[in-house]
Amino acid sequence: MTSNNLRTALYDTHVSLGGRMVPFGGWDMPVQYPDGILSEVKAVRTATGVFDVSHMGRLYLSGPKATEFLDWVLTASASTLRVGRARYCMICNEKGGVIDDTIFYRLSEDRYLLIPNAGNRPAVVAWFQRWIDEKFSRGCTMEDVTSTTGLIAFQGPGTAEAIDKLADTPLSGMRPFSWAETAIQGAPMLVGRTGYTGENGFEMLVQGNHVVNIWTALTASGAVPCGLGARDVLRLEAALPLHGHEIDEATTPIEAGLDRFVRFDKEYVGSDVLRDQQENGVKRKLVGFTLPGRSAPRAEYNLLHQGEIVGAVTSGSYSPTLDTSIGMGYVLGRYAEPGATLDLDIRGRTAQVTVTALPFYSRPRRT
Amino acid sequence: MTPDDRKYTQEHEWVRIEDAAAKSAVAGITDYAQDQLGDIVFFELPKVGDSVTHLGKMGEVESVKAVSDLFSPITGEVNEINDKLLDHPELVNEDPFGEGWLIKVTMADVEEADGLMSAEDYDAYTARL
């Protein structure tokens, strides 16, 4: 079987570990390893897990106008971001729709690293290039280093202790959404205190020729290899949106309840729409809901109130951490309050769901 | 190892005749099927007394990632379902040919199973998938 999909530096490693490879965002990636999604989720919630996330993009944006450029294309502020810190935000079109969500790191006064989603990288690169050419030429350059670097996510409550044993410098004291430079076994890397699991953790940007060594060092420390299946369950439990499900080009961050990642005091692409929605409200809202048992809501299932369709599911799963089924979806505003009950159409069967405050799961905080 | 005491469908169900005179059979899904599904979390099975038909839909199985239809390998009437799967669907991951059986059926015609694949044929079939 041949495919035109891209492969990360860890492709052979995944295959030799028994990873089940599936196409995702233009890449062949492991959806799970032989022990299965439930045990991978448990590893990340109770110990340490490691994910190859090299399918996600790595873009450097540099130059005297890089800050001004990012302030124009991102919902968050680049100019107020200190060197050494990172921020989560959205890239919106003129209608406020989400082209992608991203984390960007300020590396120096005039240099940033930005991580788009795998499948959205071509769209983001084209969108950025358009604005660079139109508004910021000769002041900002973009470099796509996705194919020459790798990205590894090291996630779980045990990661802080484990990383201090592995890295050349102590990292367990790093604040969330900060980054640092260090090395593991001679391989230099940029480490961010970030992730997509709702758990404590780190993400490591390394040169392509070091990726396998870093992965091996982490698994040798006891970290369980985890695939896209576990990653999806973990992010859903933490109510983190997935582009193509909770957010897309026809959905705004306001509808998605992501207004805390949106600035309303600067002008940028889509800002007028977002400001208007924030002031005047939106018709539909993203909600979370639970239902007893293990039969999961799935994307596009309808949500009903007294027989009328009032919304639809965007993501759902059995949650092994909470031992109940959970989902997110869009509903008309008047059904969005926690405690509201709706009917879910599960392939012709009806199940009652209860709208609940998000996230479903938040990690225990140290006291 | 695919047990050779039973027959298989292309939809990855198995049926084993328990007592030909009494037309009683037990059915489940194969090791290949459970491996493809991954961690199973939920079964929707027919009820005792329901009729099932050869290759007709008889229920659903949900894993963490997907929902799949279950098809009956045989025609007959359901006389028992595996209640343990309600709380322990993972039994099918652990032991699909034994503890993880799905339903017991009184067959309309025991010879119907003759038309299904042998273990050897089924292994050859899955090797090509």
Describe this structure in words.
- The complex is a heterodimer of chains A (367) and B (129).
- By secondary structure, chain A is an alpha+beta fold.
- Chain A has 8 helices and 19 strands.
- In chain A, helix 2 crosses helix 7.
- The model of chain A has no long low-confidence stretch (mean pLDDT 96).
- Chain B is 19% helix and 35% strand.
- Chain B has helices at residues 31-37, 84-87, 90-94, 119-127; strands at residues 7-8, 13-19, 24-29, 40-44, 51-52, 57-63, 67-71, 76-81, 103-107.
- In chain B, strand 6 and strand 7 form a beta hairpin.
- The two termini of chain B are 17 Å apart.
- The chains are: A alpha+beta (367), B alpha+beta (129).
- Chain A binds chain B through residues 31-32, 36-38, 229, 232-233, 293-296, 298, 317-318, 320, 347, 349, and chain B through 38-39, 41-42, 44, 60, 62, 64-65, 67, 89, 93.
So how many helices of chain B?
4
CATH superfamily label of chain B:
RNA polymerase II/Efflux pump adaptor protein, barrel-sandwich hybrid domain
Radius of gyration of chain B: 13 Å
- Domain count of chain B: 1
Give the key terms.
heterodimer; A: alpha+beta; Gyrase A, domain 2; Alpha-Beta Plaits; Elongation Factor Tu (Ef-tu), domain 3; six-stranded antiparallel β-barrel; 8 helices; globular; B: 129 residues; alpha+beta; OB fold (Dihydrolipoamide Acetyltransferase, E2P); six-stranded antiparallel sheet; three-stranded antiparallel sheet
Question: TL;DR of this structure?
Answer:
Chain A is an alpha+beta fold. Chain A is built from eight helices and 19 strands.
List the helices and strands and how they pair.
The complex is a heterodimer of chains A (367) and B (129).
Chain A: H1 11-16, E1 20-24, E2 27-32, H2 37-46, E3 49-52, E4 59-62, H3 66-73, E5 86-92, E6 98-108, E7 111-115, H4 121-135, E8 141-144, E9 149-155, H5 159-166, E10 179-184, E11 187-192, E12 201-207, H6 211-220, E13 224-225, H7 228-237, H8 271-280, E14 284-291, E15 302-305, E16 308-319, E17 324-332, E18 341-346, E19 349-356
Helix pairs in contact in A: 2-7
Chain B: E1 7-8, E2 13-19, E3 24-29, H1 31-37, E4 40-44, E5 51-52, E6 57-63, E7 67-71, E8 76-81, H2 84-87, H3 90-94, E9 103-107, H4 119-127
Antiparallel strand pairs in B: 1-2, 2-3, 3-9, 4-6, 5-8, 6-7, 8-9
